[in-house]
Amino acid sequence: MEACIQDFIEYLAVERGLSANTLESYRRDLVGFSTYLSSSPRASLLEAGQNDIVNYLGFLHQQGRANTTISRNLASIRSFYHYLLKEEVVKADPTIHIGTPRVEKKLPKVLSLNEIDRLLASPDDSSTAGVRDKAMLELLYATGMRVSELVSISTGDLNLSAGFLRCMGKGSKERIIPVGTIAGRALTKYLLQSRPQLEKDTKTDALFLNHLGGGMSRQGFWKLLKKYSRQAGIEKEITPHTLRHSFATHLLERGADLRAVQEMLGHADISTTQIYTHVTRGRLKEVYTANHPRA
Description:
Layout: H1 2-15, H2 20-37, H3 50-62, H4 67-86, H5 113-120, H6 128-143, H7 147-150, E1 158-159, E2 164-168, E3 174-178, H8 181-199, H9 218-231, H10 240-253, H11 258-265, H12 270-273, H13 275-291
Antiparallel strand pairs: 1-2, 2-3
């Protein structure tokens, strides 16, 4: 069974170009299902039927797993059997009549403009690390990138004179994103003053470096964001994705075209971007309630 799962993971990596994190998620879901089956009479992924899968989803529910987790597991199992059917390893797809658990879409948390201003003003830009941190925060908010994309940028991906950068997103899909004037100034200062000091003797193309001269990690940036969030007095629990949500919401609130925001975020499907229209409608109601004399 392990060989079967490994073949599927290699297929996803080569044919669909999925990221290492996504591949690991597929593997974890399938190994979990395989382990569950090993305690049942069937004891094999290749012999599992619809009832086995339904019972497994029920087992996950009994374990207190969220509907989002159960839905993801079903999606992994469904993709696996689609692959096995295509490769003629199995004769039928046992997932074909299984419905996906309903998942309640939660509106993303966003920061207000005041909170964004306080957060971006938090780093001490008279220090080497502070200049770097300010550049990272400014760039993340200016572009709406994922944190994995932010820490993967190389110096060659930047074209500050033109005001753009090249970003490699999910599935190795490349996109070009504008860089605002303020973020551009912060990046220029970082490249001229801070990065040469951080680079030391290590020669790397990574744009953002840690104190050892290596590339900044996602975990490293997460810690920095938490520190500056506390310094800014922001009481909300924020993540790097909060800046991405804020980027999209603030653009749409000011009349940006939904398709343009989709392109900048790197969403394959515009329905993913449309969740931000619900956020902005909620914001409009707040503005109306706060300002209309008969609200």
